Amino acid sequence: MARTITFLLLTLLLSCQPKSQTEPAPKQYSVPAEVEPYVQAFLEQVRQRNISVPSDNLIITFGQTTGQDVCGQCDRSAGKTPRITLKADGDCWKTAFGQEREALVFHELGHCWLNRDHLKTQFPIGAYVSLMNPDDVSVYATCRYPIGGDVCDKRPRRGYYLDELFDPKTPTPAWGK
Ligand SMILES: [Zn+2]
Question: What is the pTM of this model?
Answer without folding.
Answer: 0.84
